[in-house]
Amino acid sequence: ERYEEALVAVRSARQRAITRGTESGFPFRVAEARILREAGRPGEAANLLFAIRADEHTLGSTRELAAACAAMDRHAKAAEAWERYNRGRPDDTASMLEAARCWMMAGEPQRAAAWLDLAESSGVEPAELDPIRSMH
Q1: pLDDT at position 18, please?
Q2: What residues have CB less than 8 Å from 77, skipping those under 6 apart?
Q3: Secondary structure E strands in 5-95
Q4: In this structure, which of 17, 22, 78, 80 has its CB flanked by the most CB atoms within 10 Å?
Q5: What mean pLDDT do residues 3-30 have?
C-alpha cells in the first residue's frame, strides 16, 4: 500500500511537470520505475523506461532499466541497455564493465570478453576486470 501511495504521488508530480512545460517529467519517470521495481513489478518498470529514447537515457535511468531487466532474469536486455548507454558515451568505462557483467550473467562470456577487452584498452585496471572474468 505504501508503494501505491508513492506511485500516486510520483505520477502526479510527473504530470504536473509535463503540464507546466518545465520539464519532460523524465526524473519522475525514473522514480516511478524504481518504485515499481521495488514493489515487485519489474516488467512495468522496464516498459516505462524502454519508452525513453535511447539517446535520452542517463546513468540513473540506465541503471534502473538494467536492474528491472535483471529482476526478470533478462540479463541480455540489461547488457543491451548498458551497451546503448555506452554508445553515447564511448569513454565511460563503468558502462563497459556493467555490460560485461550483464553478459556474463546472461551466459554470454564471449560478448562479455569483448567489453572487458575494451575496458582494459581504455585503462581499467585488472583488479576491476578479474572479478567479472571469474564469473563464468
Answers
A1: 81
A2: 46, 69
A3: none
A4: 78
A5: 84
Measured CA to CA, the distance from residue 48 to residue 26 in angstroms comes to 11
* 106 contacts 89 by C-beta, under 8 angstroms: no
Q: How far apart are CA 125 and CA 77, in angstroms?
A: 26
Q: At what angle do helices 59-71 and 93-105 cross, to 10 degrees?
A: 10
Neighbours of 128 (CB within 10 A): 14
Other CB atoms within a 10 A radius of the CB of residue 90 amount to: 11
Separation of alpha carbons 74 and 55, rounded Å = 22
The one-letter amino acid at 64 = E
Please write the tens of the pLDDT for every residue from 31-70: 999 999 999 999 999 999 998 888 889 999 999 999 999 9
Using an 8 Å Cβ cutoff, are 65 and 93 in contact? no
What is the 8-class DSSP label of residue 55?
G
